[in-house]
Amino acid sequence: MKRHSLSQGIVLAAFAIVLVGVEATETNVSRASEAAGPSKASKQPKKPKKKVPRNVRVYVGTYTSGDSKGIYQFSFDTKTGKAGPVSLAAETPEPSFLAIHPDGKHVIAVNETASWEGLKNSGGLSSFEINAETGALELMNQQPTRGAHPCHLVIDESGKSVLVANYTGGSVIAYSILEDGCLGEASAFVQHEGSSVLKPRQEAPHAHSINIDPTGRFAVAADLGMDQVLVYRFDPSKGTLIPNKPTGIKVAGGAGPRHFSFHPNGKFGYVINEINLTVTAFRWNKKAGTFEEIQTISTLPPGEKRGPGMSTAEVRVDMKGKFLFGSNRGHDTIVSYRIDRKTGKLTYVSNTSTGGSTPRNFGLDPSGRFLLAENQGSGTIHVLKINRKSGELASTGNVIKVPSPVCVRMLAVDGGK
To answer: What's the farthest any 2 CA atoms get from each other in the chain?
Structure first.
């Protein structure tokens, strides 16, 4: 396999990814002409539903400071909620977050380190090719992220760019992705500037995540250190990032915005705030790239106060846009909300134990039946059943053991059912 040379002496990086891509079916209504008389609107038969993959391959990103060696994988049955044996997909340092390429043949991972091949204040970014039969990941090439501790990434829909958030570096960077899946040259770099009220935690910028809006025209970066969700105009043909006007929206002082999720209808967005254990809902103007706050709601049960050592981690809207889920570390639960799809407002549903300690990112399987909750502290992934009417979660009793799991991504491996 063709490989590209390492840029600036980059070291092997690793990541784990899980790909899912399932969309709801739509009904097409077309105009049909009658043989005689005026034309009438008539409904055509519904298009057949897209098949939900029965089996997916789950990639798990981890921290390697303990027993983990890199990115792990296992098979998952979306009908039964049961997993196959766990194996090491690739050995690589600190592959904490992963993204699966739209071609389903490559995975890109961040290497969340403070230095990279002699470069200070830089982590790494690694591209892997997927062995279609075994799921093993073969390293293609690597690049430096030009900021310490890269912690989140996203690949654009065209598959031509990958965007990365550097936590300690307080910056974002974009790299081109070549046709063979290798990482090309950097196409954008932006250093965040600013701080907020909680010192020393917020004395400098800390870019914690980066996402692309449903139109593909804007990138959104949640910065914990600035208490701000920043917006960039993104050009997918060039991979450039240009600060929008206005540059973003502030959240409450000391909230600590961490991760972000857009609603599939493209009208709303949600940021989970790590420090004060809340979710802020926004109305999104997809033409102007601007936010308007709708509400801020606690991630804990009504009336419960934040306890010592508690913080949040991940936030996800389900595929149909009915529910929002968020993870609470220390409280060790997943919170569920019902989404009003007209207003974007959230209504609390429940908090459910993750069955372990320090839950981080979690995965929603393509059938919409299961949530895979990763517990970094206890080295387990617990499979929770989703009530698709209420959004409530319940334990299935199925537990997968993976050392220090941080991120899951799913990739379909069959044609569906």
So the answer is: 79
The strand pairing partners of 98, in sequence order, are 109
196, HSE (Cβ side, Cα atoms, 13 Å): 22
> Does residue 21 surpass a pLDDT of 60?
no
Q: Which structure tokens are listed for 328?
A: 């609470």
Q: Which of 408, 350, 404, 397 shows the shortest CA–CA distance to 375?
A: 404
d(CA 148, CA 112): 7
- The separation between the first and the last C-alpha atoms of the chain, rounded to the nearest angstrom, is 34
Check if the beta carbon of residue 162 is closer than 8 Å to that of residue 184. no
The token duo for 230 is: 């920043």
- Six-digit token string for 34: 């009658």
pLDDT score for 314: 98
pLDDT of 176-235, one tens digit each?
A: 999 999 999 999 999 999 999 999 999 999 999 999 999 999 999 999 999 999 999 999
Regarding beta strands 137-144 and 115-116, do their DSSP bridges make them parallel or antiparallel, or are they unpaired? unpaired
- Sequence-distant (≥ 6) Cβ neighbours of residue 41 within 8 angstroms: 29, 31, 32
- Strand 137-144 with 240-250, pairing: unpaired
Count how many Cα atoms sit within 13 Å of the Cα of residue 16 in the half-sphere of its side chain.
37
Asked if 327 and 310 count as a contact pair (C-beta separation under 8 A), the reply is no
What would the pLDDT profile of 380-405 be if each residue is shown by its tens digit? 999 999 999 999 999 999 999 999 99
Cα angle 294, 386, 356 (rounded to 5 degrees) comes to 95
- Residue bearing tokens 């690694």: 126
